Structures are given as C-alpha cells and as structure tokens.
DNA sequence: CAGTGGTCTAGACCACGCG
DNA sequence: GCGTGGTCTAGACCACTGG
C-alpha cells in the first residue's frame, strides 16, 4: 500500500470503526501522502489491513466521497480528486469595454486561463415566463419570453449551464431569438436595440445538485453547485434579461468588488 | 404511510432498486406530498412495502440525505429538511451609512429578517500571519497580525464562522485587539484610526464542509458551505483587513450589484 | 418499554477496465 | 481473466427517543 501510514483500529475508542478508517485516509490526503490523482488502497487491501467487513470499508470510503475528497471509478479504483482549472468570475466581466471587443465573456475569460472554451446544446424558443422569472422581469403572469439555453465547457468538460430569459416583446424577430447571438453576445444585441445596460443584480446560492444537474455537469458525488441568477437592468430601470445559471463549484471562484461608499 | 403514492419496484428496470426507491421518495418531496418537517416512512415500513433488505432501504435514504433533502434523527425518524430563515447578504452591507448607525452588520440584518442574532466564541490573539493571509495584506513573511475569531448564530442556531486578520502594527493596543470591538465594529475603529475605507474585494467558493466546520455549524450531511474571503482596502490602496468566513449555504443568499460601466 | 436509526458482519452476484 | 467497485441479502447488536 505504498508509503501510507495507516494505523490499526483502536477497539477501545468509542469512535465508529468506519469513521476511524475514514479519519486515517483523510489524514493521508491532508498530509499530502495521497496526492490528487493518486489511487487510494483498494477495498480488498483495506479489508485485509483493518480486518473488517467490506461494508465497513465502503462506508468509510463513502464518507470521503461525500466530502468531495475522492472519486470512485468503477473497475479502476478510488482516486483522490484533482481539481479542474478554476475560472474566476470578476465583477467587471460584463463591463461594456469587454463587450465592445466582440467576444462573449465566457470565451475571453477561459482563453485567459489557458483553457479551451466551447458551448453546446444551444436551444432557443419562445415560451410562457416561469413565475419567478416573470417577477424579476416585472412582467404580467401571462407574459411571453425568449428562452436561450446553453451549456459551457472548458477543455471538453462541462462547467456551467445557463438559461437566459428575455421579454419576447424585446427579442422576437431579432438575432437574440436565433442560436448564434453574434459578436459580444446578447448584451451587445440588447444595446443595439436601444436598451443601454445600466447594471446587473446577482443572487447566489450554493446547494447540492439535483440529479439532472449532476448529469448535465458530470458532477461526481460530493461536489455542490453555485446557483446564480442575474438580472440585467437597462438605463431607466427596466429589467431586460434574467439569466439562471448552475455552475460546478469546483470550476469557479466568484469574485466581487464592493465600494465602501 | 399516509397519503403517499409509493409504487412498487419494477424488476424489469435496469435502474438499481435503491435508486428506484429514492426516486419515489424524492418525487413525493418534490410533489409536496411530503412537506418540510414531515416524517418519511420508517425503515421497517419501507422494508415491508418494497420487500427488500434493510441495507437497500438505507442506501436509498442515504441518497436523499446526501442531496440535502432529508435529515435523519437517531431514535426519531427521517424528516424532510426544513430551511432556516435565509439571510441575504447585500452589496451595500458595508456601506458607511450603516456603520455610522453604530450597529454591526450582522445584528442589523438579522433583526431585519425577524431573527434573534447572537455571537459567541469571540477570541482575540496576536499571531504570525498565515501565508495566504499575509499575501492578501501585502505583508512580509514574518508579519504579525491580530486575529479575531467568532461565530454568528440566528435564533441560537450557528450559521457562520469568521476569522478577521488585521496587521498588528495597525491594531495592537487599540480596541480592535479586545473582544468587544465597540459600536459599528472593527471597520468603524479602523476609520477612527485614520484608515478610511475605500472598497472591499470578496472571493467566494462553495464546497462541502470539513469535519470541523460541520461540527461548528451543526451542519447535517448534504449541506455545502460558502467560503468567503473578504479583503478591506483603505483609501490609498492599502489592505487593512482580511476576513475569512465559512457560512452554512442554506442560511444565506449572497447578493451583488454590478455596474455595467 | 417499543420503535427508531447507527453500526457491523459475511456472504453473493454483477458490471466495468484493462491487459 | 482478474481485480476493481456497485448492488443486494439476512441477519446481529447497539444507542437514542418517546410514551
């Protein structure tokens, strides 16, 4: 089992056996004797080392997995999790000066950290606004919206899903309701349509993913998501877009600038 | 088992039995037939209903727990999780006009949502700056800092731990290095000392809690944390404080305002 | 006390990966 | 084919909660 320093179970301790085992393994990871990408000893090796039943070992391993420290790969083994490149979302990512350069925010930022950006499953349709979205857009209960759904990937690995809602009255028949929103993205199009943007509000939650989200982002167990809802306001105060995004928490650091005023 | 509509296992399906069971229960929760606070059928009831072994039921229940949908209470049962009151952290929470009113941000905001705020385990000491903190404060490697640790509670339930670091050179011998930082908190004291605050930078991550964090915040399994690191800058650009906080993700929505500039 | 969930055992068969 | 993890069974004893 390599250079690991795994003690034996202390039968006198009142700490559960599986917790003692997960403590040992967690200690090896935190001490760096098990590095990201390293293989954790197999179940059979641990069974032999500790002299316990298989389910006890599995419970210890599940503990580590639910803490986001390891991933199990069927037929290969259990590995210490290695983090993908982290994308930093800065407060100024929607500044007009970036938009004017013609690249959508995601592409520019991802190239900036040396990753290969891509976008897939772009779907655009017109639909009834969900209630919470309608509220944020200050629309009536029967309002129609253009809905743009897409998924963002870095180096082929999905990191974020996003759904934008724009009042149909604004976007219908424009490039916003076509899959390719053009240079600078939909914010550039909104400004061309005369909706000069003034500010954005972002609400951020963190939670465990639903089953669908875990599938769409290929999330291993133990990785939470950021759920970010951004509302874009035009000068004059009208809400012109709501963007509902779900991001893999280990692909992102969100970064904000607050004036002391 | 009440009004629940729990189907039987489909033996023809290739979906694992325990996943079929957790799908059923998840459906009852999402449909609202199991409301927050409701008791999920007991293991023995589920064993009888589905005719499977206990470990299979337990695996299904663990699935729901790791998704943050339920909590198990030893000797009582498994319950649908009910959310505590959510505290919204707004962009303007450190605006000077609030500080001038003399209430620290946490107290004022919590009373605003009808909760009873409290703070405990306040510890203050002087220590060597950890490397990452020293970097953020632009201090040398042997720099000393005043460290202020505390835990915030709403209605007696812990929601956040915070550790502030202030260069010792600034804070030594002032009220900042005493447990009670006085009206308006340490930001008010820093300004009185001539460090007029200009802006704050916040970095936000989400992840599963460590064991220590889960204990300090009494987090049930399946609840991630926000890890927020805020740096306070004085006019002139000097970093005068770093605050490292860990927040229960289901007690908070973070809210930010971004100018379109 | 009865009922609940928490831990643990000692097996079984299966599906996946890799050589 | 062999070793890996994934699922499942059928028991056991324990600790906690509540009447």
Automatic annotation (TrEMBL), chains A, B:
InterPro entries: Bact_HTH_transcr_reg, Chorismate_lyase_/UTRA_dom_sf, Tscrpt_reg_HTH_GntR, UTRA, WH-like_DNA-bd_sf, WH_DNA-bd_sf. The keyword Signal does not apply. Residues 15-83 form the HTH gntR-type domain. CDD domains: WHTH_GntR. Keywords: DNA-binding, Transcription, Transcription regulation. Gene3D superfamilies: Chorismate lyase-like, Winged helix-like DNA-binding domain superfamily/Winged helix DNA-binding domain. Transmembrane segments: none annotated. This is GntR family transcriptional regulator. It comes from Nonomuraea typhae.
């Amino acid at each position: 089992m390599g250079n690991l320093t795994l003690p034996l179970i202390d039968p006198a301790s009142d700490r559960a056996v599986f917790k003692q085992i997960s403590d040992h393994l967690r200690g090896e990871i935190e001490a760096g004797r098990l590095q990201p990408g390293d293989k954790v000893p197999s179940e059979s090796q641990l069974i032999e080392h500790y002299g316990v039943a298989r389910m006890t070992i599995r419970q210890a391993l599940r503990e580590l997995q639910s803490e986001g420290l390891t991933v199990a790969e069927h037929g290969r083994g259990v590995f210490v999790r290695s983090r993908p490149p982290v994308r930093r979302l800065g407060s100024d990512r929607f500044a007009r000066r970036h938009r004017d350069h013609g690249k959508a925010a995601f592409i520019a930022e991802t190239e900036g950290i040396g990753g290969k950006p891509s976008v897939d499953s772009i779907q655009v349709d017109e639909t009834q606004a969900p209630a919470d979205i309608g509220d944020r857009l200050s629309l009536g209960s029967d309002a129609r919206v253009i809905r743009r759904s897409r998924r963002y990937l870095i180096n082929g690995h999905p990191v974020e899903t996003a759904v934008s809602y724009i009042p149909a009255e604004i976007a219908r028949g424009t490039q916003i309701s076509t899959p390719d929103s053009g240079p600078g993205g939909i914010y550039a199009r909104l400004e061309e349509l005369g909706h000069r943007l003034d500010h954005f509000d972002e609400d951020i939650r963190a939670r465990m993913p639903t089953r669908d989200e875990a599938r769409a982002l290929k999330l291993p167990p133990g990785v939470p998501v950021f759920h970010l809802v951004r509302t874009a306001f035009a000068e004059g105060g009208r809400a012109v877009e709501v963007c509902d995004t779900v991001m893999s928490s280990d692909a992102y650091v969100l970064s904000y600038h607050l004036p002391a005023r």
